[in-house]
């Protein structure tokens, strides 16, 4: 089968053996894939958790059809339309754990379905399960114009947040954040953004920050979070190291929590997917939770799709079809 593989000379489409499902695995006939930021690093040979390196089939998000079931796989049957996350997505066939997938709603095509699994699981976990958002609270999403950022704002609104603030350093994308749940959009490269947040919250700060930037905004986040507020760190777009004001952290008694899927067990991942199904799946099916597709590329143009992502001018998801 054809797959997008990282090799000694970089990533390219290659012929590899079709995988065989074992245990609770499902073999998926892939129809579309969503690109994610982590894919750009793996395409250059960087590890993402335990995955990566020469011989790795790239990709982590897909939509398609069940082609075959492992002996212990439950909940789906051959022919079902599904979407999910996991390694080796950029291929004609991929394997998925039966607990790490969703049924694709009948009112979505494969391109639309491929935009959702990573954003839904990541941000439901960050905003609801870890962030503990409550009705009437104020929430700030750092890096809000990314696919997962747009989803985070929508989930916060769905769960009753009174004020949702999104950040983007790009003026065009910042101007579109209100289409996806933002009541206020700020430029995190402007030192005055903290003042804007404090003004919008009557000087108190927000209850919750979901931070995809970290690095350079870490201390500003502390200043923008209310006493006894929470910061959930889900990314490092602003750098992996920075000064940290421990005194301000202590004075505001902020809960600062790091999350990632890279160190989670499959049991933990299954729990997150199950909570998404139980709590917000109706909003997915009604299209209340959805992401814009910036551009769609055929599989043989996957390198161009990555070039488009690395240009960093897109809003929403870039999709590759097979």
TrEMBL record:
SUPFAM superfamilies: GroES-like, NAD(P)-binding Rossmann-fold domains. Transmembrane segments: none annotated. Pfam families: ADH_N, ADH_zinc_N. InterPro entries: ADH-like_C, ADH-like_N, ER, GroES-like_sf, NAD(P)-bd_dom_sf, Zinc-ADH_QOR/CCCR. SMART domains: PKS_ER. Keywords: NADP. It comes from the Bacteria. Residues 7-320 form the Enoyl reductase (ER) domain. GO terms for molecular function: oxidoreductase activity. PANTHER family: QUINONE OXIDOREDUCTASE. This is NADPH2:quinone reductase. It comes from Bradyrhizobium stylosanthis.
């Amino acid at each position: 089968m054809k797959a997008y593989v990282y090799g000694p000379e970089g990533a390219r489409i290659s012929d590899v053996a079709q995988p065989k499902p074992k245990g609770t695995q499902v073999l998926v006939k892939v129809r579309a894939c969503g690109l994610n930021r982590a894919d750009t690093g793996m395409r250059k040979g960087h590890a993402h958790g335990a995955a990566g390196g020469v011989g790795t089939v790239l990709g982590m998000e897909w939509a398609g059809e069940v082609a075959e079931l492992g002996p212990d796989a439950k909940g789906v049957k051959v022919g079902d339309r599904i979407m999910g996350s996991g390694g080796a997505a950029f291929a004609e066939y991929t394997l998925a754990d039966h607990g790490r997938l969703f049924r694709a709603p009948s009112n979505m095509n494969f391109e639309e379905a491929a935009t959702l699994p990573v954003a839904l699981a990541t941000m439901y976990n960050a905003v609801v399960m870890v962030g503990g958002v409550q009705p009437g609270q104020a929430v700030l999403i750092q890096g809000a114009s990314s696919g997962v950022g747009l989803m985070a704002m929508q989930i916060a609104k769905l769960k009753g947040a009174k004020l949702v603030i999104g950040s983007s350093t790009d003026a065009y994308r910042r101007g579109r954040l209100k289409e996806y749940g933002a009541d206020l959009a700020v430029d995190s490269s402007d030192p005055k953004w903290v003042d804007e947040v404090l003004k919008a919250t009557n000087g108190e700060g927000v209850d919750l920050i979901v931070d995809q930037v970290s690095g350079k905004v870490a201390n500003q986040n502390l200043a923008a979070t209310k006493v006894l507020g929470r910061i959930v760190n889900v990314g490092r777009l602003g750098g992996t190291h920075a000064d940290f004001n421990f005194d301000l952290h202590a004075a505001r008694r902020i809960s600062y929590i790091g999350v990632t899927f890279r160190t989670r067990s499959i049991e933990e991942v299954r729990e997150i997917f199950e909570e998404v199904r139980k709590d917000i799946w109706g909003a997915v099916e009604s299209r209340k939770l959805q992401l814009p597709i910036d551009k769609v590329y055929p599989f043989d143009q996957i390198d161009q799709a990555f070039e488009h992502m690395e240009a960093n001018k897109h809003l929403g998801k870039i999709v590759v079809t097979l």
